[in-house]
Every structure is written in structure tokens, then in C-alpha cells.
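Sequence in, structure out.
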Amino acid sequence: MINDNNTKSYLIYSFNGWFIILFFFVGLILPLIIIERYIQNKNATLFAIIIILFMVLAYFLARNLGLKPIKVYFNNEKIVFQYLAKNLKTVNKEKIISMKYIKGFSDFTFGNHDVFKLILHYNTTFRIYKNGFWNKNDDFEILTNDFKNFIETQNTSEIVGEELTDKKEKIEYKDFFQTQKATFLFYGAIVVGIWAIIITIMGKSHSPTGSLIVIGGILGYIGTYLAKNNKQE
């Protein structure tokens, strides 16, 4: 975090999900095309070396091009997002959102992905993603927690003297994992997961690979639900 003129700011690295596609294309599809077209000697060791080299290249491309540094700060009137250059000094673009236009906030997370999501008027949203695998250590989690505390404070009426302070429209904090839908989905996931495991073990699944993917997704949701609820206790 940075304190500029007594204003707390946060440095975060937003990840563009489109670079996942770039990663798989450069790291896997491209080397396979090269091997198929230009490599005459079909040698497994050579294949592995080529793919590893392209995977390393893809990793650095996605990490350097997909991560965008953003400086964030907020007060009672607005929240500001400054999109910075690589040197972290030049502001390439700035987005300002007035607090009066924010209806809700959500930090719904699934697996290793974090999100800072603002729900605005007219059913529009503004969101920034963090991927725990790609992102550098930044202030993303600190920003999320501080903004939640800010919302709680703003939504609490304060009495000054004998008059109630002028309150703006409340910003609703929306935590999906604390809703009834999330709980129903949690128990449903357990039932479906047990069923998927049983049919996979018994060999009755038409697509074992598909069943394993489903089981993995279900276990991911169950683990995330439990982790989020344990944090609240």
C-alpha cells in the first residue's frame, strides 16, 4: 500500500483472462503444429523439449502482457482506478466511479480466482480479476477487505449531536457463499459428487475423463465453500 498525501492507495495487478488462451496456444498448440509439420524425426524426447521451451515462452508472455498494474484509492465520494505503465509512474488511463452510482459490491471467489466487482446502476458492473497463479504479490486482498470495511462503515448511521448524518443510498455487500443458494448448491454438490465417484469407480460412466472433470469442479466448489464459511466464523 502507498500513502499519498494521507490518501491510502493500493497497487494491484489485474489479469486479463484472454491471455490464458494465448498461453495454451503458444505453449501447446503451436509446438504441436511445428512438430507435426516440420519435425521429421518423431522422437519423444525431442517433442518434450520443444513443448517445454514453448510452455516457458508462453508463461512469460502471459505474465508480462496479461498483468496490468492498477493503482486504486477511494474516499466517501468516489473510487479511482489508475491504469499504470510498467514503470508504475505513468498513468495510461484513469477510471473514476462515483460512490453514489455503486449499488453493491462482491468479492465472489471460486478456486484460485479473486474478483473485485462493483454493481452499478442500470444492472451494469465493473470488475477486476486476480488469478493467484499468475499475479504477483499485491494489495488485492487488502483492497477487498478495506473496501468491505468501508461499506460497513458507510452503511452504519452515525449520530452527530442531535441530528442524524445525511446518508447516501446503501452499498450492498453481496457474498454468494453466505446466501441460501450457495448452501443448497453445497449439499447438492456433495450428492452429485458421490454419485459421480460411484459410477466412475463402477465403470458405468460413458466418459471417465468427463466424470473426473466434473468431480474436480465439484470438489473445488465444496472446498471453496468451506474455506469461505470458515473465514466468517
